[in-house]
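Problem 12. The chain below contains 230 residues. Write out its predicted structure in token notation.
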Amino acid sequence: MINSIIIAPSSLDYKITKCPRCFYLDKKLKIAVDSYPPPVFSNFDVVQQNYFKNLNTKELSEKLPSGKIMTKSELPGRVVSKEMQDSKGRKFILGGRPDIVIKFDDGSYGIIDFKTTQLSDDKADNYKYQLESYAQIFLNPGATKTAPTPKLDPISQIGVLQFFPSEIFDHEKDNCKLNFKMSYVKLNRDVNDFYKRVELYIDIVSKENPPDYSDNCKDCNFAKTQKSMK
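Solution.
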């Protein structure tokens, strides 16, 4: 019996096409070549979520419909899909922890991510597969050992709320006050494209051996250089 492949939504972002070989080494062999973001970015996420969690979503952006961020009492910490299949019949389960899930006043739902980064529509588009993963989880819910994932339908919105520090406007001893520019980017949902991404993921991690070195990957080029020097 073939077990389902467990896919984290973040695994479907831009890194999968940046270098298939490095992606394989990370996901299949647990050899990570990229460094993780500094912990400060996680701290930004925490303070941003704490500030906005009890406000109407119009306070996040006028581009968002009116609604409320769902609380921890309404959602389990980790959400998972039921067992699903790609077009080749290969089984997979999606599972992760979404940043923000919104229940809009019209009864639909939204899934957005907070990112501290340069304000850019193109950069926001890098996360469309990750956010569509969560949409698919809530539309095809499964259950962890501790809690079922609720079914949320329809999902009317996925997007990225970007924050970028712009100025320090005041300070006192051991403390300063910082302004952030904000920009919300609504992303277009494309379920067919999402499933193609899942298939690419499974194609890569199902290989017996790592893909070839990528000429445009600095880590691959470094590895090839070291190999040639032996």
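Discussion. The beta strands are 5-7, 67-69, 79-80, 84-85, 91-96, 100-104, 109-116, 155-172, 175-187. Students who got a different answer should revisit the alignment rule from Section 12.3.
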